[in-house]
Amino acid sequence: MAEEKFLTEEGAAELRRELEELKTVKRPQLAAKLKEAISQGDLSENADYHDAKEQQAFLEGRIQYLETLLHSAIIVSDNGKKAATVGIGSEVTVEESGEPPETFIIVGAAEANPREGKISHESPLGRALMGHKVGDKVKVEAPAGQLIFKIKSIK
Asked: What is the helix (H) or strand (E) element at residue 52, kind and residue range?
């Protein structure tokens, strides 16, 4: 059985926008670059040609990945209601003893971006938070040792 992939509505929309840009803007630009490189002659020692072919392979791989992901992903919607427990799409504020509160959005692995506060439900903290409610304390195994977080709020 294939591994299930989850996306929030926002994450799916971002990936659809990226896919559209890759297909309508980046692909034609790269085709023009490739055509120009081919017109330079001898392809065996043409660095522009080899660079364009490498970029094309990466671009087509990304397009294929996004199409497959968007076709097979389970889109998680919050339906505008407040959740009692943490799930994918939840905005969770947690506090570690003696530290300021931190807020994270629980997302599927494909849209995780810790710099933006989006953590995967498969990450150690995400996995520990899933299914818990406000006031619960969760333990997370980290390289520095065990950390304990208290859930302050869920949106």
From this structure: helix 47-72
Kindly give, in sequence order, each residue whose CB lies less than 8 Å from that of residue 48, ignoring residues fewer than 6 positions away.
33, 36, 37, 40
Residue labelled with tokens 């670059």: 33
Q: What phi and psi values does residue 15 have, to the nearest 5 degrees?
A: -70, -35
Strand 102-107 and strand 145-154: pairing?
A: unpaired
The architecture that CATH gives domain 91-154 is Roll (3.10)
At the top level of CATH, which class does the domain 6-76 belong to? mainly alpha
Element (H, E) at 20: helix 9-21
> Cβ(108)–Cβ(5) under 8 Å?
yes
d(CA 104, CA 125): 10
Give the span between the Cα atoms of 138 and 116, in whole angstroms. 22
pTM, rounded to two decimals:
0.74
pLDDT digits (tens, 9 = 90+) for 87-127: 998 999 999 988 899 999 999 988 899 899 999 999 999 99
Q: Where in the chain is the domain with CATH 3.10.50.30?
A: 91-154
